[in-house]
Design goal:
alpha+beta, Alpha-Beta Plaits, 10 strands
Length: 284
């Protein structure tokens, strides 16, 4: 049996993309694959791999950039344009999501009902648990520190999904590979914005180089720190995410946090069921 923890046991990289892999896998399956492969269904808890296995992959490319996000929860009105743009840009199939907007209705003091919309995707953590858990060496840091998947190496083991504290990874049922947000690297490297940012009508998504003091994201972060809250999701996980959420006293991150997927979970269509927008049950 091949030892997937041995970095020498990876296939030689080629010029194939995830789109090529999907096409080849669909043809091999006679275009009739509809369920998740058994290998992806029976995934044990992600093992703790030796640091020597992931240390180099945790290092970002030496380009001097540090990509990050501001997500303004106060501005998002739940139009789903970011999700549609993401699906179109990245060939995301029905029932699967790289990006999802989570709705939550809650009662404020005084009996008023309020709604919060939380746009979610990979948080591109500095200390990414998915990279540490990946046994085949596919998860790594790319340009600007973006957490990416090498589709020439990914085996669909799903250990990364089991390790992600934010449910931001799914296993493609056709290619049997991990899929997640990669900061639209193909667009960013060409001088464009990620598809979701370019599409958001509310300008709730801000992306840029955190190392550049003149960048829009740096200037906005400096201004917002004095007029609103900049919160990090689940800081107790110590993953050091590069996404900060802009909130206020009327829309605290804590009220919607229980609805964000956790380790071993992924975004799903059930989030759009109106009956799931109500106050979440207390977690044990």
């Amino acid at each position: 049996m091949t030892d997937l923890t041995d970095p020498n046991n990876h296939p030689e990289p080629d010029s194939s993309t995830r789109r090529d892999v999907l096409k080849q896998a669909a043809l091999a399956a006679g275009l009739a694959v509809s369920g998740v492969p058994a290998a992806a269904q029976e995934v044990a808890q992600a093992p703790a791999l030796p640091e020597a296995h992931w240390r180099d992959r945790m290092q970002a490319s030496d380009d001097g950039k540090r990509y990050g996000w501001l997500v303004d929860v106060r501005r998002c009105f739940g139009c789903h344009a970011c999700e549609v743009a993401c699906k179109a840009e990245n060939d995301v199939p029905l029932g699967q999501f790289i990006r999802q907007t989570i709705y939550h209705d809650f009662e404020r003091p005084g009996g008023q009902v309020a709604r919060i919309m939380l746009p979610m995707s990979c948080l591109h953590c500095e200390d990414a648990p998915c990279i540490k858990a990946c046994p085949c060496g596919a998860l790594h840091k790319g340009s600007g520190g973006s957490v990416q998947v090498d589709y020439d190496a990914c085996s669909g083991h799903a250990a990364c999904k089991e390790a992600c504290p934010y449910g931001a990874i799914y296993i493609d049922p056709v290619a049997n590979q991990a899929v997640k947000c990669h900061n639209c690297t193909h667009r960013v490297d060409a001088g464009m914005e990620p598809a979701c940012v370019a599409t958001c009508p509310a300008e709730a998504l801000i992306f840029g180089d955190l190392n550049d003091p003149d960048a829009h994201i740096s200037q906005m972060a400096q201004r917002l720190e004095s007029e609103a809250r900049l919160e990090v999701l689940r800081p107790e996980k110590r993953a050091k995410p590069r996404v900060r959420f802009v909130t206020d006293s009327a829309r605290p991150l804590s009220v919607v946090e229980p609805k964000v997927p956790r380790e071993g979970q992924s975004y799903g269509p059930e989030a759009y069921d109106v009956f799931n927008w109500q106050e979440p049950e207390e977690q044990e």
